[in-house]
Design goal:
Helices cover 30% and strands 26% of the residues. By secondary structure, the chain is α+β, with helices and mostly antiparallel strands.
Length: 439
């Protein structure tokens, strides 16, 4: 018999706390909607495991370290090791990755820790018999590969709406949306949804869970219940919602509502086609993969220094985003040149990342990946997975950077720009190999 518990706690920061996601500072001036820590815990009497997801851009290592200490002290080391801890990647949540935090940010950071422990404690205390239904639909009309081949043979990230120099997207992507429904007492008690989409539809300086929050509220409204809805970010390092074939504003709260409601409708329509999980067997596997870091050539170092020597230092007004690199905005060129020099001077050779799989019989598996992997990584893992349905959970277990495919480095674009401890071209192959070995 499978027992399942779930809970969610608010982690919305106070005003004044800086928001993550862009290169400029953005102290928040209010909120559109609350942020949450959400968890679902599974227990078959022999093993207890779970998934914990935050409305944050990432889970920084200092937060992971404290969580490991506090969760281990309260629940034991095995329970901590059997948790996949991840973020959904909203760009309008608090910035916790900086080394120094002011008083308000420290307060918000500590509130996340306490909220996490409350959520986990309630989920464990509320374990009750439940059923799992699972399935997927190959339908992601709101996702677009954001890297484009231009007519001059180069790759540009976010090249601009109706840009006549666009040739075609760099690739297609895996449009699978995975769905797990938890049923208790004959009703839907929680949902876990696996969707490849960047959490960056709003911009500005107002706190929001982005489209994830709108998605959740639409599901709750349709099912007439305030149950937890966990969005697990599928590999979307090269995916966003920008449709560059149209000249429309796609950065607003209104856009978050459109995308969230659209995904909710797809999931709601698929609920009637899910399969019942027949097995109550749970297997948890943890492994460590060594991820190599980027090494710059002398020519790349010289080019970065040349940019700093020749490009004027002109501040940029407003949000500082990835497309500023494509538009050759001076502030962006100088920012990435400085990052390249820091990569050369400060990067370590590699870092170790923890990969975790949660396996339910031979039907369902959750696979954690570090950082922001390109979508081709998820596609390869799914194609080679022995499980009927495989969820890919990015931004999980270990703080990391973009994980581009090897061939993308020579092509350029925003995601392959070097920074301190950014990943080497062979990193994706090592991660895929380790994830498949777990499976």
């Amino acid at each position: 018999m499978l027992n399942i518990g779930y809970a969610q706690e608010i982690i919305t920061p106070p005003t004044g706390v800086g928001l993550a996601g862009y290169m400029n500072q953005r102290p928040n001036v209010g909120m559109y909607d609350d942020l949450y820590a959400k968890t679902v815990v599974f227990d078959n009497g022999k093993k207890m495991c779970g998934i914990l997801v935050y409305d944050l851009i990432d889970v920084p290592q200092k937060l992971r370290d404290i969580l490991k200490e506090r969760i281990t002290a309260k629940f034991g080391s095995e329970f901590h090791d059997n948790l996949i801890i991840c973020a959904n990647h909203t760009h309008t949540g608090p910035e916790f990755r900086k080394k120094e935090m002011d008083e308000r940010t420290t307060y918000a950071f500590n509130q996340v820790i306490e909220a996490t422990l409350r959520a986990l404690e309630r989920a464990v205390m509320n374990l009750l018999p439940g059923e799992i239904e699972y399935g997927c639909v190959y339908n992601n009309p709101y996702g677009f590969v954001r890297r484009y081949w231009m007519k001059n043979g180069t790759i540009v990230t976010n090249p601009g709406w109706c840009n006549p120099e666009i040739d075609k997207p760099e690739s297609d992507f895996d449009r699978t949306i995975g769905i797990v429904r938890i049923i208790q007492n004959g009703v839907t008690a929680a949902l876990l949804c696996n969707i490849a989409q960047h959490g960056d539809t709003i911009g500005g300086s107002i706190v929001s869970a982005d489209w994830y929050g709108r998605f959740t509220q639409e599901i709750q409204h349709a099912l007439k219940a305030s149950m937890p809805v966990l969005v697990l970010d599928d590999a979307s390092g090269d995916i966003n919602h920008f449709d560059f074939s149209q000249k429309i504003n796609q950065s607003s709260y209104k856009e978050a509502v459109r995308v969230g409601r659209g995904y909710a409708q797809i999931v709601l329509e698929a609920l009637g086609n899910l399969q019942k999980l027949e097995s109550d067997e749970i297997v948890v596997k943890n492994s460590t993969v060594t991820i190599p870091h980027r090494k710059l050539t002398p020519e790349e170092v010289a080019e970065a220094q040349h940019i700093l020597d020749t490009v004027p230092d002109i501040p940029k007004e407003g949000d500082f985003e990835s497309q500023d690199l494509a538009n050759k905005v001076p502030a962006a060129l100088r920012y990435f040149a400085k990052s390249a020099l820091r990569c050369h001077a400060e990067s370590s050779p590699s870092h170790d990342a923890r990969l975790t799989t949660l396996e339910f019989g031979k039907e369902l598996a959750f696979v954690s990946l570090p950082g922001e992997p390109f979508n081709g990584i998820a596609r390869e893992i799914r194609e080679k997975s022995p499980f009927k349905n495989t969820f890919i959970i990015s931004l999980a277990q270990t703080e990391s950077d973009y994980v581009p495919l090897k061939e993308c480095f020579a092509r350029g674009g925003y995601e392959v720009q070097p920074g301190v401890d950014s990943l080497a071209p062979e990193a994706a192959e090592e991660i895929v190999k380790a994830a498949l070995k777990n499976l």
